[in-house]
Amino acid sequence: MTLHLCSPHHTSSLHLLLVSSPSSFPYSQASPIPVRIRASFNSKYPAWHEYDDAVKQKDLARALQFLRNTQLDRDSSPARLAGIGWDRDWDILDTCLNADDMKLVGNAYAFLKEKGLLPSFGKCRNIVLEGPRDVVPSAVKASTGLDVSKLSPKKWGLTGSSSAVLVAFLAGTSFLISQGIDIRTNLAAILGLAFMDSVFLGGTCLALISSYWPPFRRRILVHEAGHLLTAYLMGCPIRGVILDPIVAMQMGIQGQAGTQFWDEKLESELAQGRLSGTAFDRYSMVLFAGIAAEALIYGEAEGGENDENLFRSICLLLEPPLSLTQMSNQARWSVVQSYNLLKWHKNAHRAAVKALETGASLSIVIRQIEEALCPDE
């Protein structure tokens, strides 16, 4: 199946930007190299100072060029036996977020995979679960054990605990006014600031405040780890995971957090004004993976409204555009696939969440995923 885009130029700047609404863990193998070992290694192999500087400066092109140039030397040198040089290759992933050339990011992942450091990268790229393509709500229930409503982002004030908070807030306001305490002026000012934050800053201020609440913060981590792991398993290079609302706003992400990934085939097809069914399926699975992750861990999803909006925008660019029924079916199919994929790799998802929770860099997060997927290696 091949879908065609009616306005391919609208997607020229799209690098598949995912945005969401919103324990201890052994780092024995994935911990950064101790400073003393790194200094000793650099004294014996001074050229590695160049690599360290490139990583520090977030210069992906220079770091990748260095690794390629030293590849043959390390294959036959004492460094290869010690494993120190190869262990440091992981650091290159931490330079990806600043890279403007997404093909360069893809090359970095391809280099590490060729060296055997990313054996699980893309392991599920060609996997499409068996079963009918038409996924009705009852099929979602049968596959996941959850009602389809549990796999949809919640509107604040209308669903979940937020409705109770809203009712309590309105009741409290009414009570204070009935007691002669007029807070309407202050309330109007607060609502005005909230409105301005929503319109001009994309809700960044509210998101920043909310992110300090541990339960909400962890839900964001669960959501983004779902995007990250699914993209990794589907062979989509990850540029980075942004968890700071202010940084997200500066990078143009509409939401509290975001995971940036790249699919070379999808971008190439979009540039040609067409979209194959396999590329669209893979894209949809990664896009709905955050919602699926929340449903898997909490029994229902709250975040992901921006993910749905991005999905709709792509569907409307197709020629002919997908109907509402077709969009709903593709969304249900995708979220079920992502849900089951994450369920089968639950340990890896848990590892990603815990690594993100500690503030680990992308290279550490990816290593934890690999260790969880290949524990005996």
From TrEMBL:
One of its GO terms (biological process) is leaf development. The chain crosses the membrane at residues 156-181, 187-209. GO terms for cellular component: chloroplast; thylakoid membrane. The keyword DNA-binding does not apply. Keywords: Membrane, Transmembrane, Transmembrane helix. GO terms for molecular function: ATP binding; ATP-dependent peptidase activity; metalloendopeptidase activity. It comes from the Eukaryota. This is ATP-dependent zinc metalloprotease.
